[in-house]
Design brief:
Blueprint: H1 8-18, E1 22-24, E2 36-38, H2 40-59, E3 64-66, H3 75-80, H4 83-86, E4 88-93, E5 100-102, H5 103-109, H6 120-130, E6 148-151, E7 154-156, E8 170-172, H7 177-182, H8 184-191, E9 197-206, E10 221-231, H9 236-253, E11 261-265, E12 275-283, E13 286-295, H10 299-308, E14 314-316, E15 321-323, E16 326-333, H11 334-345, E17 346-351, E18 354-359, E19 370-374, H12 379-392, E20 398-400, H13 406-415, E21 420-424, H14 426-431, E22 433-438, E23 444-448, H15 452-460
Parallel strand pairs: 3-9, 19-20, 19-21
Antiparallel strand pairs: 1-2, 4-5, 4-6, 7-8, 9-10, 10-16, 11-12, 12-13, 13-16, 14-15, 17-18, 21-22, 22-23
Helix pairs in contact: 2-11
The structure holds zinc ion.
């Protein structure tokens, strides 16, 4: 179906709740804004996305290693990175209706894109430049107050028992890549990495977003999948182009329709950036950033070198050369990928006068690969079907479902994207075979239990 069709987003949100993918946080207490919980199927889907990312980014590459740095870091890290002073949402107030708006979102509405890492000065300049084209989204007036900034870092009292911790807060990390920069030297020394090489990590980050919106697209707590690739300054753009290509291919490989993916070039760069592109996905609410790929120069390592007093240069002993590596960053979000995957897979089909909702998920990402469904609740079927479940679940994530009619169970598995349903019926006791139903074609195969493992190995491995 058309992804921008009205109501698609509502249908996805409703399916996510109904089928255990995503729940609003603290719902029994009326919810908690801009935070979501992943339910039993959501955690499987997000784990599968992270596994697919880790496999391509770390396991299949000899030049990239993994890391899991802590959420809490020295507050000095965030001073060096510029987040304490510069990491903020720029707000302006309409002088007529007094409603506050995020300046970068207003600019976006007239196709002027601000980099999220821009300073107050940089974004104010963009705002001034385009002021005559900007209207209050609420009332249409064109008079605004000066830009005020709200810092996005989330503060905590970790390790501070004095009561006045707001003076010297410890932050929850605003991005995962700072953990990579501060461990750059540890990784070079312990792993003998030679430039070019990369460090990858997935993990939670926190931002005090003022206007969180669009379901799990922009939330205050979120999970990133970031990789920093350290290169010789002369080679930066060559590797930048290579990573651009690989990252786009990743989304195609996890089953996203190429027509729903596009490149977006950043025109207004932060001062140190060499080039920045986003991979955008055509969400039901429009083209939005799925992943950022940035050539960041030597800014990050130089900042940490200056603020920590430690030497973070790379020594090339073969060429007898010393330099600060440039960084190519690939930065993706787990929830954004999940939302893109769900929107892309969501399908409604007419089947015998009925509407069938099916998630045509790539088998790599599907929460359950197989569902085992005994035709009746009688022990004579449930017991051997459960044996089959036990056997298959050693290798695949399998659901075992005995409630309601077989037709309803098929529909439920379609809705959560399970590629194969096995029906264990009364004939199975005699012929030692089961019916395997394909999610997309709804075709059914009779397969002997002895051949099942080979059958699925061909379909799923
Ligand atoms: Zn207004």
């Amino acid at each position: 179906m058309a992804k921008n069709e009205q109501g698609t987003m509502e249908k996805i949100v409703s399916l996510c709740k109904r089928r255990g993918f995503v729940f609003p946080s603290s719902e029994i207490y009326g919810g908690f804004a801009a935070v979501y919980d992943y339910g039993p199927l959501g955690v499987e889907l997000s784990n599968n996305i992270k596994k697919a990312w880790w496999k391509t980014m770390v396991h299949e590459r000899e030049d990239v290693v993994g890391l899991d740095s802590a959420i809490f870091m020295s507050p000095k890290v965030w001073e060096a990175s510029g987040h304490v002073n510069g990491f903020s949402d720029p707000l302006t107030e309409c002088k007529k209706c007094n409603v506050r708006h995020r300046v970068d979102h207003m600019l976006e509405s007239i196709d002027v894109f601000a980099d999220e890492k821009m300073s107050v000065e940089e974004i104010s300049a963009l705002f001034e430049e385009n002021k005559d084209k900007l209207k209050c989204p609420k009332c249409g007036a064109q008079e605004f107050t000066e830009i005020r900034n709200f810092n996005l870092l989330v503060q905590s009292n970790l390790g501070n028992f004095t009561g006045d911790w707001a003076e010297n807060p410890v932050y929850l990390r605003g991005e995962t890549c700072q953990g990579i920069y501060v461990n750059y030297k540890n990784v070079v020394d312990s792993m003998h990495m030679k430039v070019p090489f990369g460090i990858a990590q997935t993990g939670k980050a926190f931002r005090n977003e003022i206007t969180a919106r669009q379901f799990i697209f922009r939330t205050r707590e979120f999970e990133q999948m970031e990789m920093q690739y350290f290169v010789h300054p002369d080679d930066a753009m060559k590797f930048y182009d290579e990573w651009k290509e690989r990252r786009m291919q990743f989304y195609v490989d996890i089953g996203i329709n190429e027509e729903n993916l596009q490149w977006h070039k950043h025109e207004n760069l932060v001062f140190y950036a060499k080039e920045a592109y986003d991979i955008e996905y055509k969400y039901p609410f429009g083209w939005k950033e799925l992943e950022g790929i940035h050539a960041r120069g030597d800014y990050d390592l130089s900042q940490h070198c200056e603020h920590s007093g430690q030497k973070l240069e790379y020594v090339d002993q073969v060429k007898n050369e010393k330099y600060t590596p440039h960084v190519v960053e690939t930065s993706a979000g787990v929830a954004r990928t999940m939302l893109a995957v769900l929107a892309d897979a969501y399908t409604e089909e007419e089947v015998e006068g009925d509407t069938r909702v099916v998630l045509k998920l790539n088998t790599k990402l599907a929460p359950f690969k197989i569902a085992v469904l005994p035709l009746s609740k009688k022990d004579e079927l449930v017991t051997p079907a459960r044996e089959l479940f036990k056997k298959l679940s050693k290798k695949y994530i399998v659901d075992f479902d005995i409630t309601q009619s077989i037709g309803k169970r098929y529909r439920r598995q379609d809705e959560v994207g399970t590629p194969y349903c096995i029906t264990f019926d009364f004939d199975s006791l005699e012929d030692k075979a089961v019916t395997v139903r394909d999610r997309d074609t709804m075709k059914q195969d009779r397969v002997t239990i002895a051949e099942l493992e080979a059958y699925f190995a061909e379909k799923l491995d």
